[in-house]
Amino acid sequence: MKITTEKHSWEFTPRFRRGAFGWRSQPAITRIKEAVAEIKKVARKEPVLAAEGAVLFLEKVSPALQNVDSSSGAIGSAVNRAIADLVPIIARANVEKNLRAKWLERLYEAHAADQVPYIESLGGYWGELCATPELAAVWADRLMSVVEQVWSGSKESSGFFHGTYMCFSALLRAGRYDQLLALLEKAPFVWWYDRQWGVKALIAQGKKAEALRYAETSHGLNNNPESIAQACEEILLSSGMADEAYQRYAIAANQGTTYLSTFRAICKKYPHKSPADILNDLVASTPGQEGKWFAAAKDAGLYDLAIKLARQSPVDHRTLNRAALDFIETQPLFAIEAGLLSLRWILAGRGYEVTAGEVMTAFDASMRGARVAGSVDQTLLRVRKLLDAYPQDSFVRGALARLL
Asked: Using alpha carbons only, what angle is made at residue 101 by residues 95 and 103, rounded to the nearest 5 degrees?
């Protein structure tokens, strides 16, 4: 079956001419999303045509983005997501071997010419794009000698070959696991991004214990301990060894963008562990930063623990204010303590760009909680004792003067 772009007028094509975008990344990201959506829509009725469109897009995207400021990483992430969405469309297309071979040649040339690079991650999908072990074997034979040649020099003179991960992926898809492992032994450096393919090869052979040892010995150049921990954790989890996975790798493998996201990720992955136990382990892993886990404890309904943590090390006063306001009616004692701790850390000079309104919010939330709990006089006394502990303060005293 032969498909040509002349049979279909893709809307994205004129938008992705060379140097089409200026330095701002957002317009380019929008166009990338539109192009992927267009291809996916066509794929529902004409999968082969959609695959051709996907190949065309991947040929055009990097030259079109050559002027875009990629320093934030947003545009690179958008392209990587597009690649992840489009690879299955190309891989699943039911086409003759010759047409698929032509697609691969086009993608190989685009990948070789990728200067920024934007479509670098395409190499890791090469085995999937080959669709069959037979075609993957052809590419493995073509690329392996080049990888060996590039790696044959000294560590200082070893060069770069854009098709290295294509070779690994093709060897894996072709089922040539021992050859892949032997090739990796010739690498000039111990590098996890290479050796992760060895882990995949060992897992594909059912050798999980060996895969675990292989991953654990993959720390080296440009180390990525989090990624290694993730691979080791997955091996143990897939082997039914959840307790060992948790003990050895859970914290290192699930570092989120916030303390709360880290806590949630581990709770989701290890439902047999109590949130309190997980949180205590996380707190122990960050000595001196106990307050950073306040939001996680609150999220888990561990209110006493949340307050305990907030007393041990600073918590942002805005976080404490929000917590106090949210729980005035349902957890008034917690609201009182959160508001008072907000005042305490402000008085201690640990607040950043504090406003008088935020000081009054902390006080008001505590007093409203006190009214619900029936402890107004005791709470007022605690506020005054707090102020007495910081006699040099004038800002908080001034903000609360009328209220007190």
From this structure: 80
Q: Within 10 Å of residue 248's Cβ, how many Cβ atoms?
A: 17
* Inter-residue contact 191 to 222 (CB < 8 Å): yes
Closest CA to 328 of 362, 357, 358: 362
Is the distance from CB of 368 to CB of 329 less than 8 angstroms? no
CA 388 to chain centre: 46
Distance of alpha carbon 83 from alpha carbon 80, whole angstroms = 5
Distance between CA atoms of 242 and 230, rounded to whole angstroms? Answer: 13
Q: For 40-75, give the DSSP string.
A: HHHHTT-HHHHHHHHHHHHHHHHHHTTTS--TTSHH
Task: Say if residue 136's pLDDT is above 70.
Answer: yes
Query: The dihedral of CA 378, 383, 386, 390: what is its sign?
Result: negative
Element (H, E) at 8: none
pTM of the model: 0.86
Comparing 139-143, 303-307, 332-336, 397-401, the range with the smallest average pLDDT is 397-401
Amino acid letter for position 185: E
- 192-204 and 177-184 are packed helices; what angle lies between their axes, rounded to 10 degrees? 160
Residue with tokens 């294509």: 166
Other beta carbons within 10 angstroms of residue 285's beta carbon come to 12
- CA 347 to CA 370: how far, in whole Å? 21
CA distance 31 to 34: 5
Structure tokens at 34: 């539109």
DSSP secondary structure code for residue 241 in this structure: -
Identify which of 226, 193, 233 has the alpha carbon closest to the alpha carbon of residue 212. Answer: 233
